[in-house]
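Technical annex, item 7. During the second reporting period the consortium partners agreed on a shared format for inverse folding records so that results from different sites could be compared directly. Each record opens with the tokenized structure and is followed by the designed sequence. A conforming record, contributed by the partner at site C, is shown below for reference.
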């Protein structure tokens, strides 16, 4: 069995742009260099925004770029019930609570802006609610305090091989509380599992040894490592790479249609042009 398995895990909610192409090509190159495996996973748990057309276009773009995945594509939407087992495990340890707060409620309850943080840290309004109190429209949140108490004797760590954060990172409970807080694990009004958990579980169940992704996701790694450890799943090595930015230094987003790979493709550019543009 190969000991290097990586994946490209786009959300099919828009076209691939140069930043995604860089991520996918780097991932593929690293897998090929290590004589490992490269997998493609569609993170399509956002049922409103994920579209089969984007899924198809992403596969077309990747193929045009010369990338081949070594197993059938895994689509999270096709295996939603498989996550229940893990949610049940967390619930058994009393690590989940129902939450009915809207985004506006959360903003109003936050005393200070959470600038620089990847998301708004939940102020804990519903924290005291037992899971038996869950209504159909409630989200489920991780009770991070209890999770950290459970892990206190043996705090997990992870290896990072990417440039900016290279080294061993031990989970810091205070930092986790301040920067991450009680994240949503299943979204409000849907049975749908949220990104943090689905992605971490799939990394483990697909046997991913190396998660290669943009450094904008670095701050989420701690919570994913915490979740994996709580679930007794293996923690991969992480490699967060630089982001491709526009001429103003802004990170490219899905709406940057001008930089969509399909646009370059239709304009007659070649995969080698794309490699050059992203510095590969
Ligand atoms: N699905 C996520 C995205 O498109 C990436 C998740 C990951 O690589 O861990 O931003």
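Designed sequence (site C submission):
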């Amino acid at each position: 069995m190969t000991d290097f398995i990586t994946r490209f895990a786009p959300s099919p909610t828009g076209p691939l742009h140069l930043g995604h192409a860089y991520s996918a090509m780097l991932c593929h190159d690293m897998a090929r260099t290590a004589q490992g495996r490269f997998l493609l996973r569609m993170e399509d748990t956002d049922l409103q925004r994920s579209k089969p057309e984007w899924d198809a276009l992403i596969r077309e773009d990747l193929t045009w770029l010369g990338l081949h995945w070594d197993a059938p594509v895994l689509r999270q939407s096709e295996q939603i019930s498989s996550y229940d087992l893990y949610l049940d495990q967390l619930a058994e340890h009393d690590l989940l609570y129902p939450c009915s707060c809207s985004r506006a409620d959360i903003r109003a309850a936050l005393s200070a802006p959470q600038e620089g943080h990847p998301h708004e840290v939940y102020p804990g309004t519903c924290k005291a609610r037992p899971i038996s109190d869950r209504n159909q429209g409630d989200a489920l949140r991780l009770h991070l305090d209890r999770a950290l108490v459970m892990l206190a004797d043996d705090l997990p760590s992870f290896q990072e091989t990417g440039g900016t954060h290279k080294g061993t990172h031990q989970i810091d409970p205070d930092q986790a509380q301040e920067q991450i807080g009680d994240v949503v694990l299943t979204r409000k009004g849907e049975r749908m599992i949220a990104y943090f958990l689905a992605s971490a579980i799939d990394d483990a169940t697909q046997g991913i040894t190396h998660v290669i992704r943009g450094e904008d996701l670095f701050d989420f790694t701690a919570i994913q490592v915490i979740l994996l450890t709580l679930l007794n799943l293996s923690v991969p090595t992480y490699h967060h790479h630089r982001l491709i930015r526009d001429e103003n230094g802004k990170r490219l987003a899905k709406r940057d249609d001008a930089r969509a790979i399909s646009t370059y493709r239709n304009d007659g550019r070649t995969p080698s042009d794309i490699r050059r543009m992203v510095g590969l």
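The two ends are 29 Å apart (CA to CA). Residues 111-117 have pLDDT under 50 and may be disordered. All partners now use this format for quarterly exchanges.
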